[in-house]
Amino acid sequence: MQKILITIFALFLGIQAQAATSATTNNWDSTAAQKRLNNIAYKLIKSNYLPDGISIKVSNEDEANAYANINKEIYIYKGMLNYATTDEEIAAVISHEMGHIINGHNAKQTILNSIIANLTGGTSGSDKKSSIGAVAVQELSSAKLSRKDEFEADLSGVDLMVKAGYNPLAMISVLNKICGNYVDIISTHPSGEKRLMNIYDYISYNYPEWTKKGYSTDSYNRANALIKLNVEERNASKRLTKKYEKEQEKLKKEKIKRAKKMLKANNGWNSAYNTLLMLNSGSASQSTESNSK
């Protein structure tokens, strides 16, 4: 059954990717795009009482990409707007990146990368073999952490969208166009099917009025066809149903914790990152002083 679902999902993705690629932005107006993104971001920020400091920047790159950095800057690529075509789909992209900022993922990942770099630096001779094993373990840990962050950013994004009045199902619509269905053991992003189900389950459990309302795009309707098959399979199993309810109750409790983070300009990971910068800066000073002697 699982193989059938994956095959169907891959077909959905292929159709969506082809449609999105054909809808290229021939008459690209970066100024108009920037204004549109700013308006959507402003609505998300004000509706959720987010602290100041988050900024949106348009990139003229054709790649379908968006990311947030440690400076609370969110970059939306021109290519992403070939997929996120409605205001609600754009809100989904922006709110997901805001989710990374709110939860301190950027600082956390930077810290982890720094630790990995320190662990793998300066290895030679007999230590090389054991170091390679350590690197592999660290990289797998990093990938697992990144996938967890993606799930958390999705759910935070859903909360932000609902509070701002955007239909959260738009996140499923846009992700069904761009995310791939792949084995995610060593990937930094969870597979497409997992993400879609994770988002849908969260919305249906916490905001059932939106799942009843639906979302009128071909991309969402195709994704929803797959989602319904998975839900039917789960409902037929008491074990899977119990597992689903347990997971959603846990996420509901975590939702309260995330809501508190939204009201804070900083969090523990940001503070730790700033400390790391100071330590690295101090090390660099000491190194410079010793070299000058």
Account of the 3D structure:
This protein is mainly α and 293 residues long. It has one domain. It has 11 helices and 3 strands, in the order ααβββααααααααα. The chain has a 3-stranded mixed sheet, covered by helices on one side. Helix 3 crosses helix 5, helix 4 packs parallel to helix 11 and helix 5 packs parallel to helix 7. The longest helix is centred in the middle third of the chain and has 38 residues. It starts with a helix and ends with a helix. The N terminus and C terminus are likely disordered.
- Which structural class do the helices and strands define? mainly alpha
Extract low-pLDDT stretches: 1-25, 122-126, 128-145, 180-190, 282-293
Secondary structure: helix percent:
over 70%
Q: What is the H/E order?
A: HHEEEHHHHHHHHH
Number of separate strands: 3
Terminal CA distance: 70 Å
How can the largest sheet be summarized? 3 strands, mixed
Overall tally of domains: 1
> What coarse outline follows from CA principal-axis ratios?
globular
Strand content: under 5%
Radius of gyration: 21 Å
Indicate the mean pLDDT. 74
Count of helical stretches: 11
Strand order of the largest sheet: 1-3-2
Mind sketching the topology for me?
Elements: H1 2-22, H2 30-47, E1 55-59, E2 66-68, E3 73-77, H3 87-102, H4 105-120, H5 127-164, H6 169-178, H7 192-206, H8 208-213, H9 218-235, H10 238-262, H11 268-292
Parallel strand pairs: 1-3
Antiparallel strand pairs: 2-3
